[in-house]
Structure formats: structure tokens, C-alpha cells
């Protein structure tokens, strides 16, 4: 599919780039209040997950799973949230988000109304764990040079 | 994993049951304002998608994909939303939701604040398409007797 003009995931990475694969990339989402929020973005402009060939779906989901497992290992979250929505930006991307019982929206979705103010100290503590999490992710997902 | 007491997806179907597989079930979610909202529920009480063995993950996702494709074929939605959140009910289930530019929350997530009042006429029109959609889904997903 040709990239439509103005698609932010065709024109930019969609976050801080961690791993650039041939068919997908992994970015840190930079969403305030949610330090452990990553996105797996399909490189080609595809609207729906089911439009991918079965082997591509499997490859995409195994990256999502690798990110989820890294979040669980490094951060011990209350829950990991996975979502492919794309209503505003219909270019296939998976949100992979570590959730904590103290975060501003838990147990609501990150797209819901906040339930409490963000806890800056805990957010800073979580942010401090990201370099080792990301080094682990890069070493596991980086394609061979 | 042993089913914890009080898990609503261990104790009930979690919606109107359409297909009962050995390892998953498909239910209609009965969420007001969103007639085309389905859930693929893993039968065993598992918290995170990545806790499934790779073959089980593939089986689960192929059901999700089959539902997405049926929604696209029968309803021509603006977008399909896929999500495995489970913050409130940490028993693995995938939401598969057909979204329309006229629905109460579009382009926001269904968990966000509504952006407009629900359009009863269009909701009724959509609901009228569900019997043939569901007959198609049942015929494709029903395990052999």
C-alpha cells in the first residue's frame, strides 16, 4: 500500500527508536505518566493486523511478546496491556504498556480518565529501570548486522 | 494455574457465547453503544498473553484475526480495535471491536470519554447485521463435533 500523505508513522518513527527491523521497528512512546510504554510499528503502511500475511502476523506478534516478557522480567508490573487501535493513526502499531496499581489510570485503560494524580517519585523510579530493560530488548531484538 | 475465586471469566462466559472451543471461547460482549464488540477468552486462567506457549498464542491470535476479518467483511467498519488489557479482570481475553466514525467515542478508544451521543438508528442498523456475521463466524470457528 502506498503511504498516504500525512501519516505520522510513515513520516517519523513515532517515538524514540530502539530497534529498526526490516519489517517492524520498536520505539519508546514517550507518553507522560507512563514511562514503560513501547510501540511495535509495522514499517509498511498497513491498516489492519489481519491484512498481514500469516508469517508477518506471527513475526509482529513475537516482537510484541518479547517486549511484554521484558517488561515483566525487568519491571514486575501489575499487568501488561497490549492494543492495536489505530483509529487516529491507521498505520499498524501495537501498544505494549507496563501498568502498575499506583499509576494514574489503573485499573482503567490508559485512554480513560485518570483516577489519581501521577506519582512522580514512582515514575522516576520506574524510569531509572528503563536503560537496562532497553539494553536487554535491543540485544534480543536487534537484527544481525 | 488454579482459577482464583471470584474471577468472572472463570465463573461465567463473559458475554453471549457464540463458539466454545477446547482452549478458547468467542463471546459477544454486550457493551452498550458498541454492538459489534466481541471477546476471545482463553479458557484457562492465564494472566498475560506471553504466558501461553507459542502454539497457543498462535491459535489464540488466529481466532482474533478470524473475528477481525469477519467484522471487516460484514460491517465495513472505519477500523477494528484489538486489545488485551485485563487490568480489572486479569484472565486473558482479547477485545475485538468494530469502530465507526459515527460511534460515540471515535476516534478515541472505547474506554475514553464519549465525544458524542450514541446514534440509536445507526446502532440498530449495525445490530441488524450481526446475525449473518455471527452465523459466518460460528461456521468458520466451530470445532468439529
From TrEMBL, chains A, B:
A motif (Histidine triad motif) lies at residues 91-95. InterPro entries: HIT-like, HIT-like_sf. Residues 32-106 form the HIT domain. It holds the Pfam family HIT. This is HIT family protein. The lineage of its organism: Bacteria, Pseudomonadati, Pseudomonadota, Betaproteobacteria, Burkholderiales.
